[in-house]
């Protein structure tokens, strides 16, 4: 499904400010893989997401979706195949537009099959159905401006918009980190449901170690631009947070230094 081959990305190469963001990173995701990603500060997690979504071009290496090289495709073109939810609830939606207008944008981006663009009543019915899945009453507020929603509501809408057209890849970039615990729990539950129901191939960066173990079927660890460990489902199922941190230390030779780490 998604294939990264020997991706490297340096910032400010050849200067005293040189930073290795990715170094020879390779990763293959099978359809419906749900992979959680943890790592130290500056390990390259966001850069990995940026290289996949087309925000950044790698210096070297290949990005493939379903066997096709996509590194020449611009970010807006890739957004047909790739859905992304950011940490900032303000990032994925347009605040001055209504919920319905925001959903229309997401709908247009992917052009959901089988529904004519002009069929307004059918479109509205679909939006209402999708919103009611979130279970937070947004289906009754379709003409409300998105800027008026709470952070949690907005992030739920961002998640819905990112997955609306069943993207081939879903990127979740610390998407619960800026929310209070109750809202983070809601978004986590919705994520699990949507990913499972739609069988989405998903990559989720998190600072929450318990979440990294509990969610998904694979866990990868990053350090200094490299993927240092790839833990399959069987091993992940019985892992504890202290074993996970011990494993990180054993392989990287140092403790996980993450100023936003949540142990669980
Ligand atoms: N635009 C940029 N210009 C210069 N250096 C950058 C840029 N973006 C990232 N870096 C550097 O690349 C390295 C990887 O950064 P990245 O943001 O991918 O790490 P991360 O794992 O997401 O970190 P964190 O968990 O702290 O957010 C870091 O050393 C960072 O300082």
TrEMBL record:
Pfam families noted in UniProt: ABC_tran
InterPro entries in the record: AAA+_ATPase, ABC_transporter-like_ATP-bd, ABC_transporter-like_CS, ABC_transporter_ATP-bind, P-loop_NTPase
Any one GO MF annotation of this record: ATP binding
Ribonucleoprotein as UniProt keyword: no
Keyword Secreted among record annotations: no
Chain segments annotated as transmembrane: none
This protein's name: ABC transporter ATP-binding protein
Localisation: Cell membrane
SMART domains for this protein: AAA
Membrane topology term: Peripheral membrane protein
Residues of the ABC transporter domain: 2-249
Main location: membrane
Keyword vocabulary terms for this entry: ATP-binding, Cell membrane, Membrane, Nucleotide-binding, Transport
């Amino acid at each position: 499904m998604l294939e990264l081959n020997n991706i490297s990305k340096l910032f400010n190469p050849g200067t005293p400010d040189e930073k290795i963001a990715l170094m020879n990173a390779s990763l293959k995701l099978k359809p419906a893989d749900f992979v959680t990603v943890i790592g130290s500060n500056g390990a390259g997690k966001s850069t990995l997401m940026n290289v996949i979504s087309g925000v950044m071009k790698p210096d070297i290496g290949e990005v493939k979706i379903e066997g096709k090289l996509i590194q020449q495709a611009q970010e807006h073109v890739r957004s047909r195949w790739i859905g992304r939810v950011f940490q900032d609830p303000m990032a994925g939606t347009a605040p001055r537009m209504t919920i319905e207008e925001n959903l229309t944008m997401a709908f247009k981006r992917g052009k959901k099959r089988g529904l004519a663009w002009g069929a307004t009543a059918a479109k509205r019915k679909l939006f209402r159905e999708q919103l009611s899945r979130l279970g937070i009453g947004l289906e009754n507020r379709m003409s409300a401006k998105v800027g008026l929603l709470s952070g949690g509501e907005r992030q739920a809408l961002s998640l819905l918009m990112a997955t609306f057209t069943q993207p081939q890849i879903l990127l979740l970039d610390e998407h619960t980190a800026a929310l209070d615990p109750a809202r983070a729990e809601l978004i986590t539950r919705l994520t699990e449901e949507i990913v499972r129901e739609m069988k989405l191939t998903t990559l989720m960066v998190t600072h929450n170690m318990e979440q990294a173990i509990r969610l998904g079927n694979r866990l990868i660890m990053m350090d200094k631009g490299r993927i240092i460990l790839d833990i399959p489902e069987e091993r992940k199922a019985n892992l504890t947070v202290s074993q996970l941190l011990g494993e990180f230390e054993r392989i990287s030779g140092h403790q996980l230094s993450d100023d936003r780490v949540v142990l669980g």
